[in-house]
Amino acid sequence: MLTKICKGCGRLFPYAPGAYCRECSAARRGERHRLYDDKARDAKAAAFYHSEAWVRLRDLTMQRAGGMCEECRRRGVLTPAEEVHHKLPIADDWSRRLDPGNLICLCRSCHRQAHTQKQGREGFRDPEGS
Question: Is a pLDDT exceeding 50 seen at residue 115?
């Protein structure tokens, strides 16, 4: 079996993309989310993303998409989804924060692209056409 050395803890782990083992990757992700909540999100949004209602809806949305990125699937590529994205941001319409029709499962790359396009005012094409 091919292995790599984790940059975080120095342990050997089975070869996979990235420089960190599963445990260090999870810890880094948790720290990244905490920093984002502290620095970028307002308190109301941060509380929402930690609510039971959001966690439940996020999990149902992932199940609905079969755990796959819906934008990649539209292009004929199967990529595991890592995040659930609000097509219309909650900052723009708080009332749609728990609307299943306003959610899409995306891989990290497509999620980053969705936010980059929004900042550039290009918009993100909804694969369902809504």
Answer: yes
